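just leaving the lab so this will be short. what follows is a protein written twice so to speak, once as letters and once as structure tokens for the fold. can you read through it and tell me how you think this chain folds. anything you notice is useful, everything is just below:
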Amino acid sequence: MFSRSLAIASLSLVILATGCKKDEEVEIGEQIGSQTVQQIMPGKQVVDPVHGKQVSFQYGAMGGVEGVNANGVGYYHTFEDDFYVMTMNLNIFQPGAGKRYVAWVAKNDGSNPQRAGVLSNPFGDVRHAVKFETKVDSGDDVLLFVTEESKDDPATPGKRVAEGTMKKIR
């Protein structure tokens, strides 16, 4: 029994020593890029350098619909110059071939949808983001939603994959 344990221990040391060669270098992958998303953060008084003082702020959770696995957060700011700024971060799998995700801003009943733009995804993973500025007021409890659409750039919403209702906190 002792000789069997000694043989196993010796074999383990040989394998371990072989794997620890000092002349081999481990390569670390190069940085593939970076992502910067400008986000207006609420505080005592938010002042945007372009739009001035924030008048109201809404935010809410985003979630997948109809069995789509997605989560994220949306923000909707109203400024004193009557501009409305929406930002959204959404974690969702890549769209199908020839498709892309498009964000929409609508009134809380889903009426008057405004196309907010194509979600960016610089790393090719689940992290998607979009920022949208408009002069059109969508009111309180804004509905944000995301559709999966053909890259043909349609003007009307396609299949809805995620949504969230923003709640006004001030």
Confidence is low (pLDDT under 50) at residues 5-21. The radius of gyration is 25 Å. The chain is about 10% helix and 40% strand.
